[in-house]
What we know:
Layout: H1 36-41, H2 45-69, H3 74-83, H4 85-98, H5 102-106, E1 112-113, E2 116-117, H6 118-148, H7 159-177, H8 182-206, H9 216-221, H10 232-241, H11 246-259, H12 261-265, H13 272-311, H14 323-335, H15 339-372, H16 381-406, H17 409-438, H18 447-471
Amino acid sequence: MKAESVPVDVGAGGEPASDDPYALRAGDVLEPPSDLKGTVKRLGPGMILSAAVVGSGELITTTSLGAKAGFVLLWLVIASALVKVWVQMELARWTILTGKTALAGYSQVAPKVGRVGWINVLWILMDFAKMLQRGGMIGGTAAAFSILAPIGGGDPLGHTSLTAWTVIVVVSVVGLMYTNRYGLVEKAGFVTVVIFTLSTVALAVGLPWTEFPYGGADLGSGLTLSIPAGTLGFAVAMFGITGVGADEMTTYTYWCLEKGYARWAGPDDGTEARAKRAEGWIRVMRTDALVSWLICTLCTLSFYIIGAAILHRQGLVPEGNEMISTLSRMYTDTLGPWGKYLFLAGTIAVLYSTIIASTASVPRLWTSTLGLLGLLDWKNVTTRQRTIRVLTVVLPPLWAAGYLFIQEPVLMVQAGGIAGGIFLVAVVIAVWRLRATEVAPRFRRNIALNCALVLSSAAIGALGISSVLEVFGLGVGS
């Protein structure tokens, strides 16, 4: 793609390039780092992604699956964390090369539905289901706060205290994210994810020296590629929500643009210098994505093992508003009563960071969608920022209202996970289409990455079929 054919969603409507992270202009180009130290300094989007992933998926769905199934589905946890990152990196590579957002790419995939593509319509439908998931995260955070410091003098999980803490959580998140600053989102994700990852991995590794030990036989039983009857719903939701989900893949392209990977590569002027810059920033992006993958994998495995070793053996499955109290048993049963407070503090950190990531990303996605529908000018920075701020104020209260009405965080998170699993298939279709039409052959020559993408796509296709069957009650064990 030449400089004169910069895509329609790239540009600033006349504003200076420094005001628009989505603009590709020759004056913003920057040579990629050539050493590890320089690469580390340019990481960041993956940490926001980790903050978005670690919360509901790992803490709630993965632990609940371990509590329900025991060690037998350990293989699925590993597969879920492993296969999706390759699709994520392929989509992000296309973004760096073209300067386009994922939603803009989806709109190019036929058949069209008005001004957008069918995948955009599917994204809109998925996001309504995801509202339940985000409500579940807000509810889990509110419940943790309420147990620590109940409001109203009654039951910590009663209506009064939960409602009060839900309002506090929503107001604080909206206040924090209202400025829409990328740097703030990145720093918040980094601090909370590092703290909770270290504490969770330490607990999982230390279990063999407690009254809830596990050994090689337990781990081996989890690698038999079987799905016990009655666990398929949890399994499909976990596959859809743990690791990098479809919505996180989509959002990752926006964070890569705002970080600067595409802007520093510059518009495609057809020169060898630009191609080499793009290759360098793609290498940085892959490192960023793999660091995020490592964090998510460690957390996923740790939470599943903890749930299987502690909760499953006691017949405890997190449900309803008692979810947080049940999950806290992972800590109190091994560390004593004080472990409850450690768990609650960690729960608040990881779920709150996930809510922050969602509050930062979802308004961007909806603003982008409104632009594609022709309802606003995405290229105009002022209009874009104003719309994002309005949605930052409006959306979190809607998510919270869903929780206060349903008050079933686990089921709400599962609903979002199944919807995300179905949407993953559409993302794979888009990735292959965009790769074939807009990624030059020189960027598609890595045989190992191509094989990983093929295997990843096949696994996600199988997930999509299972998800659809589960929705219609036709799944295995239904």
